[in-house]
Amino acid sequence: MYTCFKMSITSNLEVSFETDFYNVINNELVDTPSKRRTICSSTKQPLKFEVPVATKEDVDRAVDYAARAYTSWSKLSWDKRAEYLSKFADAIEANKDGFVKLLSLEAGKPPQAAAFEMAQVIGVARQMPLLRIKEEKPIDDTERTAIVRYVPLGVGVGIIPWNFPLLLGTGKLLPALLAGNTFIWKPSPFTPHGALKLAEIGSKIFPPGVFQALSGDDSLGPWLTAHPGVAKVSFTGSVETGKRIMTSCAGTLKRVTLELGGNDAAIICDDVDISSVVSSVNQITLLSFVHSGQICMVIKRIYVHEKIYDQFLAEMAKQVKTFKMGGYNDPEAFFGPVQNEMQYNKVKSLYAKINTEGWKAAVGGEIKDSEGFFLPATIIDNPPEDSEVVQDEPFGPIVPVLKWSDEEDVIRRANNTKLGLGASVWSSDVPRAQRMAEQLEAGSIWVNTHFELAPNVPFGGHKESGLGMEWGELGLKGWCNPQAYWVKHIQPKPDN
Which residue of 1, 247, 258, 370 pairs with 242 in a disulfide if CB–CB is 3.0 to 4.6 A? Predict the structure, then answer.
């Protein structure tokens, strides 16, 4: 049993990205009898290095070590735990070039997109340790004090998706550790390499059992979610998988945070500066097609006022044509391939419906033969509201643009979905835009922007887009149990 921790950090914080990949259990690099290879989505060819396939025994060992480490890790002060996290941030930054190359290969990101994710990872790693949970004192008088405090849960598990495998993973790992929990990282089978290298770095910094990572097959997730030694599961991914995870966790009443799919609407009012809104950096077009649309919180439906619809659509189509598509080694590419064959086939079926459903493509639509899972950026011109491309989340580079004329009606249409992750309103009349945005049913709402996040601001979904929030003080509290703490003050006896 661990009774105390001392800061003992290896002087060499760099790791090799040209060596084998291992699971990390109790700060040991652990091999497995069975291994597998992932596919480079730019070439459809297997990547060079194999990754481990964890066994049930690996899961049991990792959970046991995490539970032992929790006893001492949870007793450290917030500042001491933050000190470990800051050293971890230093190590991530020291290895950023290797991570950029790895992300390009395994996540289907051209170099500039991979570099963007790593910049975000480093920013989160620097800022997240600054967060603290403030205790509350609802009662504090001469007779008694009532305190609401937040205590860590125990062993946490993060189940991470393939689209932003390092950013979304660190966004779970860091607050879990900061709050006093230990953490097991379960990467997507499509993108396990980066997580294993992060955990290898962590083994040089954190005490044994505090941060572990397990790569595996489709059995690994159910083993972790049903494990009686796990106190919380934080999952980012599809609605269907989120429901299965919640069902599995119910057997042991685990705490659960779910950040699920989105079908984010952007409502464009008739008074916007079209050129600025469509073409400027971090505006509508980019926020619809970044990472080939494979982000839960990017724009998926664009409602444009009928007075400016034709001009807006023409400008957006023109801007889309400037985006270069390319593979993992193309430094000029804006977006790359769809990350995996399963998702590629799903999105490809939408492209087939352009002809069968009679949709009109303002740009794109035709799939060309290629070595990878590439799909062209495509805008669908005013399809029916009940069409699949409007009602379902494509999670690919295909976006419908639709007309509206009545404010009440467009808000109803934007809200007419089971999902509620994010939504935005764009107008030069900011009070008007705020009035409209505040009627949208989503976990994040924006005015004249979209997909803005910060480590100290929580995000999450309403309706079937999720349960609970991540990031910020609210997300940090999600890694804790609230505890009511009463103190009765003993009054001095009066002198006789």
Answer: 258
- Residues 62 and 212 sit within 8 Å (Cβ to Cβ): yes
Q: Are 299 and 399 in contact (CB under 8 A)?
A: yes
Helix axes 167-178, 193-202, angle to 10 degrees: 30
> Residues for the chain: how many in total?
496
Which amino acid makes up residue 195? A
Three-class SS of 409-461: HHHHHHHCCCEECEEEEECCCHHHHHHHHCCCCCCEEEECCCCCCCCCCCEEC
Tokens encoding 173: 């790992």
Please give the backbone phi and psi of residue 422, each rounded to the nearest 5 degrees, phi first: -150, 165
Catalytic-residue membership of 93? no
301 and 265 Cβ atoms separated by less than 8 Å: yes
Going by their DSSP bridges, the two strands 459-460 and 469-470 should be labelled as antiparallel
334 alpha carbon, distance to own chain's centre: 20
Dihedral of CA atoms 475, 476, 477, 479 in degrees, nearest 10, equals: 100
Q: Choose the catalytic residue: 200, 259, 464, 470.
A: 259
CA distances for 308 relative to 273, 408, 423, 425, angstroms: 10, 18, 20, 15
The span from the CA of 248 to the CA of 227, in Å, is: 9
Q: What would the two tokens of residue 485 be?
A: 């703490």
Closest to 416 in 3D by CA, of 463, 450, 448: 463
CATH number of 23-260+465-484: 3.40.605.10
Residue-wise pLDDT for 362-416, tens only, equals: 999 999 888 999 999 999 999 999 999 999 999 999 999 999 999 999 999 999 9
At 329-374, the pLDDT tens digits run 999 999 899 999 999 999 999 999 999 999 999 999 999 888 999 9
Tokens of 422: 């994010």
Q: Return the CATH class of domain 265-447.
A: alpha beta
Domain with CATH 3.40.309.10 in the chain: 265-447
**In the chain, ranges of CATH 3.40.605.10 domains:** 23-260+465-484
